[in-house]
Amino acid sequence: MSASRLRLGWVLGVLVVPLLFSMVRYLSYEEQDDPYEMVVLQPNIDPFEKFGSVPQDVQTEYLLHIADSLVTPQTDYIIGPETFINSPGLWLSLIDQHPEIIKLKTFLENYPKAKLVIGASTFKLYKEPSEFTSTSRPYRSGPDRWDYFNSALQLDMSGEIPTYHKSMLVTGVEKMPHKELLGFLEKLVVNLGGTMRGNGYQEFRETFASPQDGTRVAPVICWESVFGEYVSDYVGEAGANFLFIITNDGWWKDTPGHRQHNSFARLRAIETRRSVARSANTGISSLIDQRGVELARIGWWERSGLRGTLNKNDKLTFYVKHGDFLGRIAVLLTVILLLYSIVFRYIKK
Fold it and tell me: What is the DSSP letter of 5?
């Protein structure tokens, strides 16, 4: 066999074998029947008006109107979008006293089985210097400091409000690296809606547990869903049985951005074999099964909701256990093939 045919065989093998393996896995994978009823909400509020001209009580009215038409006594989870509650004064120490939290919990009193996972802009006050963080800032020119978080909350009838703070922050919008070198960009960044100091964050992945049966859901916030290994930590380290992706994709307007972002959710479902419920403020919101099949969706710029069932899973995939193992092998093979090509040409000369 000639060298050229041998190389062609290797190339075809590298390309075709993974495709065939993926197809076999796709066709042969069967979910275990363990259904949970999900309601996904898409309030569809213009993000450029959401944080200013549309009052929070009006936004909550939109959300609850959709929820009221879909939630049933059998509903297990209700999922709302990123930073839905964004009114001032949502201090973590007083979170259960905030009027919008009270409205949402009052709604849930009619559905004691349901848990609402939703995004919020939250604040934390630090009174002791030992508590200060690198992202905290002075509070009213006094000795205290405070942090702002892009958070996810779970509201239910347990009396507790578990909270997760977005960890993978968007550069320029939610954090600015190397502030000591890039300080001259502060005015430009702030004018574009970003921050030089950065949002507060937490270092570890966290899940919300059901007070009824201990089922754990991962509150994946916005572009955290882009990173496969990062999301797998919600499953491998924090024990997630479902992935809930909450986001606000309206910043991209009607461009490929929001469609691509929704497609990433399908990859995360395949990698982790976790069903995905995705709530976007302006679309696309969707329900995705463990094979990455989109079962239902709400399109761009629609005020609506979805109700459907997704299966729970507690098994760990190879990807969750080992991460981007195949990706690293592919990089290694690429380097080897590149070096082989260079050496082969050199010897041939």
Answer: H
